[in-house]
Design a protein that fits this description.
The complex is a heterodimer.
Chain A (H helix, E strand, L loop, with lengths): L1 E3 L16 H9 L6 E3 L11 E8 L4 H7 L9 H4 L14 E3 L9 E4 L10 E8 L2 E8 L7 H5 L12 H14 L1 H31 L4 H29 L13 H4 L13
Parallel strand pairs in A: 5-7
Antiparallel strand pairs in A: 1-2, 3-6, 4-5, 6-7
Helix pairs in contact in A: 5-6, 6-7
Chain B lengths: L2 E8 L2 E10 L1 H16 L4 E12 L1 H16 L3 E5 L3 H10 L6 E3 L2 H9 L1
Parallel strand pairs in B: 2-3, 3-4, 4-5
Antiparallel strand pairs in B: 1-2
Helix pairs in contact in B: 1-2
Classes of the chains: A alpha+beta, B alpha/beta.
Chain lengths: 272, 114
C-alpha cells in the first residue's frame, strides 16, 4: 500500500517569481514532484514531500561535470534560469546575473551575497528531477561562515587522506582556498629566519668574547648567519606547513608545543 | 572530493544526507542549503552522516550556526549514523551538548520531533 504525498505550497521563493504557472514550473525544475512513499517505510508516520539532490563539486572536478552531463536533458538557457535558479538560496540577497562571459557552454547564475565572489569559490550544483540531471554553476561564498573558521581551517576529525602526496595536496587546497594562510606562512618563515639569524649572531658574539680572533670570526660569520637564516626559514616552513596534524601521524606531536608559535587559538566554537 | 546532499523534506522536518567531505571549499554550499531549509520552515533537521567521510572546522562552524539557528526557531537537529570520530569531534568542540546523536535514522526522526 502506498501513501500518496502532495506538493507543499511554494512559499520561500515565491517572492522572487511570478505566481501561477511559473511557480509550478519551478517546482518541476528543482525536482519537487509528487512522490509515493511506501507505508512500510520506517518513518511511516511522516509524509515525505520532496526529495532533492544537490552537489558541490570542487574546481578539480570540472571534467567530471562535463562527463555527467546528459545530452538528452535539454539545457536551459539563461533567460529560463532567471530568478528560478536563485531559489536554492533564499536566505541570500538575490541578485542573479547571467554569467555568459565565463562559460558560455553552461547556464549559470551568480549569487551576489554582499560582495563579488571570486571564481575559485564557485561550486557546481547538480540537481536531479524527474526528467534527468540539471546542473548549473553557481557562486557561493563563505559569507555565512565565521571569519575565524575561514582563516584557520585546521584539519581535524574524521578520515584523512592516507598517503603523504594526498595529504600535501589537501593541505595545498587549504592554502588556495584561504590566501591568509599564505600570509601566515610567510610570517612564520620570516619570524624563524630572524630568529635563526639572531641565534647565529649570538654564537659569533660569544666567540669573539671568548677571544677568537676577528678574522676567523669574520670568515665564519657569513656561513653561520646563512645557515641560521636558511635553517630558520626551513623551520618556519616546517612549522606552518608540515607540522600539521593532517600531515603527521598521531603519535608525532612531540614538537607541537615547542615550535608551534604562530598558531592562533585553534578551535573556539561560538555556540550560544 | 565533492559534497553531495540529499534533502528529504517532511513538513517541519527535513533529513539531510551528507555524502563526501565538508571542507572550506564547500562549507558555504552547506551553509546555504541549511539556510534554505530553515527559511522554508524546516526547523527540525536530521543529519544522516553515514556517508560523510571528513569534516574540518569549517563544517563544525556550519553545524554550530545551524544549532544556533534551529534553537532560535524552536527547532532541533539530531545526527544519526555518526562515526566514532565524528562523535569525538563533537565532544572536543563541545557541540555534543547541543546536538543529539542517535544510532539510527528512525530514532533520530523521533528524537527531533520531540
Amino acid at each position: 500500500m502506498l501513501k500518496h504525498t502532495h506538493n507543499s505550497s511554494f512559499q520561500s521563493h515565491s517572492a522572487n517569481m511570478h505566481h501561477g504557472q511559473m511557480g509550478h514550473d519551478f517546482e518541476q525544475k528543482v525536482g519537487r514532484s509528487t512522490r509515493h512513499v511506501p507505508e512500510s517505510d520506517e518513518h511511516n508516520d511522516l509524509i515525505q514531500l520532496h526529495q532533492r539532490r544537490m552537489t558541490a563539486y570542487d574546481d578539480d572536478y570540472d571534467s567530471g561535470i562535463e562527463d555527467m552531463y546528459d545530452d538528452d536533458c535539454p539545457r536551459r538557457d539563461d533567460e529560463e534560469l532567471g530568478y528560478l535558479d536563485s531559489g536554492y538560496f533564499p536566505s541570500q540577497p538575490l541578485d542573479v546575473d547571467s554569467d555568459d562571459d565565463e562559460d558560455e557552454d553552461y547556464p549559470s547564475a551568480r549569487l551576489t551575497a554582499g560582495k563579488p565572489l571570486s571564481k575559485k569559490h564557485q561550486n557546481y550544483l547538480l540537481t536531479q528531477n524527474g526528467k534527468g540531471w540539471n546542473y548549473r554553476k553557481a557562486s557561493v561564498s563563505h559569507n555565512n561562515v565565521p571569519e575565524n573558521y575561514v582563516n584557520h581551517p585546521h584539519k581535524i576529525g574524521l578520515s584523512k587522506p592516507t598517503n603523504l602526496f594526498d595529504k600535501i595536496k589537501d593541505r595545498l587546497c587549504d592554502y588556495v582556498d584561504n590566501p591568509i594562510l599564505f600570509v601566515r606562512l610567510s610570517c612564520s618563515i620570516a619570524l624563524h629566519t630572524v630568529m635563526g639569524t639572531m641565534l647565529a649572531s649570538t654564537f659569533l658574539g660569544a666567540g669573539m668574547t671568548l677571544g677568537i680572533s676577528a678574522p676567523i670570526v669574520g670568515m665564519v660569520a657569513i656561513p653561520v648567519l646563512g645557515i641560521g637564516a636558511i635553517g630558520g626559514g626551513v623551520l618556519g616552513f616546517y612549522n606552518d606547513f608540515i607540522l600539521d596534524k593532517s600531515l603527521l601521524p598521531k603519535d608525532f606531536n612531540w614538537l607541537d608545543g615547542l615550535t608551534r608559535t604562530t598558531y592562533l587559538p585553534k578551535y573556539s566554537f561560538p555556540v550560544a | 572530493m565533492a559534497l553531495e546532499l540529499v534533502l528529504e523534506e517532511y513538513h517541519e522536518l527535513a533529513v539531510v544526507i551528507l555524502e563526501g567531505c565538508v571542507r572550506a571549499s564547500n562549507a558555504g554550499f552547506l551553509q546555504n542549503t541549511f539556510n534554505m531549509l530553515l527559511s522554508e520552515g524546516h526547523a527540525r533537521i536530521v543529519l544522516d552522516c553515514r556517508a560523510l567521510s571528513s569534516m574540518n572546522s569549517d563544517g563544525l562552524a556550519v553545524l554550530s550556526d545551524l544549532v544556533r539557528a534551529t534553537s532560535a526557531g524552536g527547532g532541533k537537529i539530531v545526527l544519526c549514523h555518526a562515526s566514532k570520530n565524528l562523535v569525538d569531534l563533537l565532544d572536543i568542540s563541545g557541540l555534543d551538548q547541543f546536538i543529539e546523536v542517535t544510532s539510527g535514522r528512525a530514532e533520530a526522526m523521533r528524537q527531533v520531533m520531540h
